Amino acid sequence: MSSRPLSPDEATGRLHALLSRGHATAREVLALEYGDAPVPGLHVDPLFDVPTPLHFHASFHEGDGIECSHNKGWNPWDVLKPHRIEARLSSDESLLPYQIGHVSHEAFHALHQEACLLDALVAPERYPAQSGKDIFNGFHPSLETLVRAGETEQKTAARYQDLDALLHKGGANGDYENIYYLQESELLARMNTLIASQAGKEGRIPTSRAELEPIAALIRDEEATRPRSGHTFTAREAAWNLREGVLDKIPEARRERFYRDVLPELYGSTLEVLGDPQGRAKMGLEPGPVYARNAAKRLLYETAHPDQAWPAEKWSQMIAKLEPDTLKNVLWLATREKNPTALPLLLEAHRQAWRPKMEPGQFAGQRVAPEPVRQAGVNRSR
Question: CA-CA distance, 122 to 91, in Å (whole number)?
Answer without folding.
Answer: 44
